[in-house]
Amino acid sequence: MKLKTRILILVLMLGTSFAFSQVKFEAKVSKKKLGVNERLRVDFEMNQDGDNFNPPSFTGFTIIGGPNQSVSNSWINGVRTYKKTYSYFLAPKKQGNFTIKQATITIEGETYKTLPTKIVVTAAVDKPKDPNDPNYIASENIHLIAEVSKSNPYLNEAITVVYKLYVSPNTGVDNWREIDSPRYNDFWSQNIDMKGQKVQNGTYKGEDYRFLVLRKTVLYPQKTGKLNIEPLSLDITVQVPTNRRDIFGSRLMTRVHKTVSAGNKIINVKALPEAGKPIDFTGAVGSFKFNVSTSKTELDASESLQVKVNVSGKGNLKLFKLPKISLPSSLEVYEPEHAENVKTNLAGMQGSISDSYTVVPQYKGKYPIPNITFSYFDLETESYKRLSSDEIVIDVLDGPLNNNDSNSNVTTANSGKQRVVLNNDQFAFIKTKTNFTSTKPTYFFKTPLFWSALLLPFLAIPLAIVIRKKKATRDADVYGNKIRKADKLAKKYLGNAKKALGKKEAFYIALEKALHNYLKAKLHIEISDLSKDKIISLLKDKKVDDTAITDFVSIIKNCELARYTPITNVEMQQDYEKAAKTISLIDKQAR
Questions:
Q1: Is it true that the peptide bond before 323 is cis, omega within 30 degrees of 0?
Q2: What is the residue range of the signal peptide feature (predicted)?
């Protein structure tokens, strides 16, 4: 009996010694699912002391506290328990699925790693209201508001969105950063310069607050119906008061991180009325003046003059086409130069746009430039208005006469006599020289053709060797082959776009489709929604240069904007060449 008892005690001692000697190093999280407005605690625990602790990068999170180090060492019933912990406090940057990667430490010369931990970050969640909780105090004293000037505008009517951050007097803000920036889908947008902004005093829900204007944006809706303005979300470091006081009686402050959002805004866009819409209406909305002028009205043939079509005022100046002028065929007209002098503020676009035509008369005479019309939708009267230019007469004082012009005041006398046309073949000549040919039969043997056919195979051998060497050299030129392949690829995908050059809408639809089809084929993916952010992410994963990525995204933006803005044939050609060059560059760089 005593022998069995001793054996049992020995086994227990060995088991205890083995359990203590086994090294444990693991990561523990406070929760695996949390809202974007909550905080996460991560503890890295070990049961033996180690060196060279290396935490993970915490991708997708911001470290707001830590590392905090704690050590516990105790003896219970003769058994020593040791625990060392490194603690981090994290704030999610955005929604999504993230992974806390492996941490490493060296214990007794060996490296140990924790297991990766998956974390799910959801939308903001409601928290229990604790009046003494700094996070609750911050949520009650910090507000981000999006003020929209008009919720039911007309199509192409300017509206503004102003983002204001309200802070109560007893709360402070150290800094902030954007988590989610709004994307204005189906709007033409422009941000207003916000330099030199100062904190102002105001009220929020009837209470005194301080506020700062963070962003001002002018929007022109490009579609009718209900359009969504995405929220602006910020991560803010807030100073909130606590119940503790210092030795002078002043309340102590504590820092917390708070995520605030302006919330979604729905804009109901009205269509322009069909009743009374002029035939020449091209989408101008606002209040405008229209003028057609010339640099001169008297000149000589082969001299040039400028005809300027100008629209000025307030409205969507960059989003409609100017009317074209109609000139007599005797005046040579060049493609117009488009100029814009437009400033954008909270009231929308203001300024002028113009097309300047260079005109060169070829013949002497007087040439009228007929009046042209320009139509727009007036927001004040909610009706269409039509403006007309005056007729301008161009007097060409000196130059050749245009005899084909029925309006010419110069006449040519007609004698009534029929003109005699001489025939060059009136006389036929008799040939005095003849070429006789031999009737003796000819043989192929020993003829020049015979010797050529005999020697040609021998001459072809060195030629074949040279061609083969060149082919081998070309096959070995990996970089050159990649360039040639990329150029062929660009031509393949941009073929339809090239055919549509000169037709703005068809060209940019074909160009955008070509860019997306190329990307899907290159990356072997099937994605129905290729957003710009997704394109940037995919190309970065393929190790494509930032310059090529920027060019690719800028072309896609041009395709979107070109449907609402006037584009010349020269700009279309430039966008086509830039697209071909960018596709070739990406094909060479993508891995």
A1: no
A2: 1-21
Taking residue 192's Cβ as centre, other Cβ atoms within 10 Å add up to: 14
**Can you spell out the DSSP letters for 274-335?**
STT--TT--S-BEEEEEEEEES-SEE-TT--EEEEEEEEEEE-GGGSPPPPP---TTEEEPP
CA-CA distance, 396 to 159, in Å (whole number)? 49
Q: What share of the chain is helix, strand, coil (3-state, %, to 5)?
A: 25, 40, 35
Shared-domain flag, residues 217 and 249 = yes
E-assigned strand segments in 320-475? 331-333, 337-345, 348-361, 365-369, 373-378, 383-388, 392-396
Residue 473: per-residue pLDDT: 74
- Backbone phi, then psi, for 479, in 5-degree steps? -65, -45
Q: Are 285 and 159 in contact (CB under 8 A)?
A: no
Return phi, psi of residue 20, to 5°.
-70, -35
485/563 same-domain check: yes
Query: What's 125's DSSP letter?
Result: -
- Residue 220, domain extent: 134-269
- If one counts the domains in the chain, the total is 4
Residue 163, domain member (yes or no): yes
* Distance of alpha carbon 575 from alpha carbon 557, whole angstroms: 11
Domain's final residue, options 93, 122, 151: 122
Q: Which of 532, 451, 578, 564 is nearest to 181 (CA)?
A: 532
371 part of a folded domain: yes
Taking the chain (591 residues) in runs of 10, the rounded mean pLDDT of each run is 57 48 83 86 87 88 82 73 86 89 88 91 72 75 90 94 89 80 86 81 87 91 90 85 66 79 88 92 94 91 90 94 88 90 91 93 88 94 93 87 54 35 45 59 68 77 80 66 56 73 78 77 62 76 80 79 69 81 78 67
Question: Whole-angstrom Cα distance, residue 448 to residue 319?
Answer: 74
What is this structure's pTM? 0.49
Report how far residue 124's alpha carbon sits from residue 178's, in angstroms, rounded to the nearest whole number. 16
Please state, rounded to an integer, the average pLDDT across all residues of the chain.
79
- 140 and 248 inside one domain: yes
Report d(CA 351, CA 354) in Å as an integer: 10
Instruction: Show which of 362, 396, 430 is a domain's final residue.
Output: 396
What is the reported pLDDT for 426? 43
Q: What is the CA radius of gyration of the chain?
A: 40
What CA–CA distance (Å, rounded) separates 337 from 333?
12
Is the residue at 253 inside a domain? yes
d(CA 218, CA 154): 14
Residue 133 corresponds to which amino acid? Answer: D
Cα–Cα distance measured from residue 313 to residue 351, given in angstroms and rounded to the nearest whole number: 6
Residue with tokens 């009267």: 381
